Amino acid sequence: MITETIRKFVGRLFAPAPKGPLRITRDKHGIDRRNVSRHAIKVCEVLRQHGYEAYIVGGAVRDLIVGLEPKDFDVATNATPEQIRPLFRRARIIGRRFQLVHVVFGQEIIETSTFRAPASEDQETDEHGRILRDNVFGSQEEDAKRRDFTMNALYYDPHNEEVIDYHDGVADLKKRQIRIIGDPVKRYREDPVRMLRAVRFAAKLNGAIDPATRQPIQTMADLIENVPASRLFDEMLKLLTCGHAMDCLRQLRADGLHKGLLPLLDVVLEQPGGEHFVELALERTDARVRAGKTISPSFLFAALLWQQVDVRWKQLRAQGEHTIPALSSAADSVLDEQTEKLAIQRRFSSDMREIWFMQPRFERRMGKTIYRMIEQPRFRAACDFLQLRAAAGEFDSVLAQWWMDLANADDVTRADMIEEIARQPRDAGDAPSSSPARRRRRPRRSGPRSSSPSGD
Ligand code: ATP
Ligand code: MG
């Protein structure tokens, strides 16, 4: 009896201590509380005052640790949506299956969700193992386990300024290493979008995907095809607007992940001219994102698909179709082909059409038409698009600049500019598309565009 007690005691002395999460203090993680959304802090404080645990979690913690400005702030708590909602003046429960709460402060929404448990064996999946529902509440530890990458499973407690880390995420983050939580094959099967996310975070953080996390991607890439189109569109948009779009696309291609995304992107990137155009578009987008400016998805997709539209447009015109109907059918066929996989929503595709359809109209400058063009809601975007074409050597850069100046001018200056055009002799200014003057102004190269344009 006594020996048994002693044995137990000694056993307990030498047993490994139960491994709790790391608790990383401010001096180690380096998050400056002043960079944390005060609304997110408020949500955590209120929940805490009511006896719940609440932490800032996910992308915001990751970005704060590496000194990037978070896009938005999410909170995770052990309170249920029904318990969260009454604590805030403007809060609504959203989602049907897995509910979470949007706490609204003016322009800012703090997405507040209850700790979730990871996928269990009896979870509903599709025939490829993709999880269809993810709706069981759990503990914080379980919540950490069902997150995708170690660096995305960090919980920042604004009260004591500690970061709670179950999977060595802070260490990975400092090494810029993207490491999936759990078995990569299982996690990608549950949700193939995680493969795209791995690529995006690697590009965004200028890091690398850990070898074990990376290894199954090539062979599992096809699973992307089972992901609903709307979800792919959202992910693709995040990818293109993460500030490192070109790196992401190159990596997606290297890993065979691009196939299900934009079916023609591969072709586009392989054409020397196409690659140049797409690269220019993405460089500009990246520069805007890094400068904290907004991005228009329609503009971006219009640019990505333009080469395809342009090629078909030219073919149709060569077959004798008129300019505008030819452009219209070219746009239709490209959009049909592309949107099958990637649900480019109707509002985007109609804006894309408007941007494209304005392009031939920039070729002629005639008073009446110019005024009508200015009134179009997409005039500004179409002018920006024209700059891109000029930079790619598709359009005369001086003329493109004239349109940009017009877009930027006030009404009086605009009237002057348009009047000035009217006074110019026809062949010094603009002429019908078949005239030599136009050809001089807007050189078209038949072979691959290798040289970059002058003037931009
Ligand atoms: P960003 O908002 O900068 O794109 P993020 O990491 O915040 O990056 P969100 O899509 O906002 O990405 O997701 C918030 C958090 O939810 C992630 O940090 C991660 O913990 C978890 N998460 C998101 N998507 C998945 C997924 N597919 N599988 C598992 N966990 C995920
Ligand atoms: Mg986020």
Shape-level CATH architecture of the domain at 18-175: 2-Layer Sandwich
Q: Which structural class should the secondary elements be placed in?
A: alpha+beta
Number of helices: 23
Which percent band covers the strand fraction? Answer: 5-15%
Can you describe what's shown?
- The radius of gyration is 27 Å and the shape is elongated.
- The chain has helices at residues 2-14, 26-29, 38-49, 59-65, 81-84, 140-145, 169-174, 184-190, 193-204, 211-214, 217-220, 229-240, 245-254, 265-270, 272-290, 297-318, 323-339, 346-358, 367-375, 379-391, 397-408, 411-423, 436-441; strands at residues 22-24, 54-57, 74-77, 91-94, 100-105, 108-114, 154-157, 162-165, 177-178, 208-209.
- A hairpin with a 2-residue loop joins strand 5 and strand 6.
- Among the domains are: 18-175, Beta Polymerase, domain 2 (2-Layer Sandwich); 359-423, no CATH class.
- The longest helix is centred in the last third of the chain and has 22 residues, at 297-318.
- With 456 residues, the chain is α+β, with helices and mostly antiparallel strands.
- The strands form two sheets. Strands 1-8-7-2-3-6-5-4 form an eight-stranded mixed beta sheet. A two-stranded parallel ribbon has the order 9-10.
- Residues 431-456 have low confidence and may be disordered.
- Magnesium ion binds next to loops.
- Residues 58-59, 71, 74, 147-148, 152-153, 191, 193-194, 238 line the site of adenosine-5'-triphosphate.
